[in-house]
Structures are given as structure tokens and as C-alpha cells.
Amino acid sequence: MAVMSKPLIFVVLLALSCLAAALFGALHNQVSYTIGPDYFYAIKFPQFRIEALPPRGGAAIVGVLASWWMGPIIGLPAFVIGLFAVPTAGRYFRAGLRAIAVVFAASGSAALIGLASGIWRVSQGIDPGFWLPAGAEAADIIRAGSMHNTSYAGGALGAVIAAGMIWRSARMVRANAT
Predict the structure, then answer these.
(1) For a tag site, which of 19, 60, 70, 108 has the least CB within 10 Å?
(2) Rounded mean pLDDT, 34-46
């Protein structure tokens, strides 16, 4: 089996980051649909023109459409650093997979923090601080909206951590080689 070149691995990592982000979005929306179905009926289904689908399937499709493109955007800094800084293709590929896993975990952790924050805000009767659609169940919007917003922040934080991990890993490999 031939070893892939680093530029080809870069493209593969971008594709894998799209798939990971799409999977994250689909899974994330299963949780957020459970805790806030009106968020989807009042906001997401109309936004993505999801009609005549079972609600959970629609929520998964919304998750895929809303997040697949974040994978390469969030992964790009780490993948570019790795392309130039990691000395071998095999190490680069493994570092890229770890970067994807770190961003997935950071986004998921942040989503859970957002969910906890939304639940607490609802229990305390705190004004959400963002627009609520007329006639929608405010608690659903607050819980699911908080979860969604913080998952994007977690992805951004995960991107910084992943890029730092790849940079540090590349420096350590180079230091051990000398």
C-alpha cells in the first residue's frame, strides 16, 4: 500500500472534518430536539425549509446542513500547521485525526454546558437576552438555543486547542530528531 502525500492527507482531513461536523450536528440536534422541540418548529424547520419529514429526521438533517461546513473552517488552522510543521505523512494524519476528535469533544462539552445554562436560566426565569419567536415555547428556545450557541463557541475553542496540539507535537518530534 502506497503512503499518501501530505497534501493528499490535507484534503482527506478536510473531508473527514466535514463528516465529523455533520455527524456532530445530527447527534447534537437529537439532544436539542428532545429538550426543545419548539426551537425546531419555530426556528430551524422554517429556516431550512424542512417539511413533511419525521421530526427527528428533520432535526438530524438540520444538524447536518447547519454544521458540515464548520468542520473545514475549524480544522483548517490545525491542518495547515500540520501540513508544514509535522515532518511525516503518517504523523500528520494521526495528528489531524486527534485534532478532529479534540474539536468534537470541545464542541460537545460546550453544548452540555450551554444546555445546563439554558436549563438553569429557565428555572430562574431569567430573560434569555435574545429574540424569541411569537407563540413559541420560550423554555424550549432558551434551552436548545443556549446549547446551539455554546457548541459553536466550543468548536472555536477546540480549534485553538487542536492547532496548539499539532504545533507542540511537531516541535517535540523535531526536538527528538536532533
Answers:
(1) 19
(2) 95
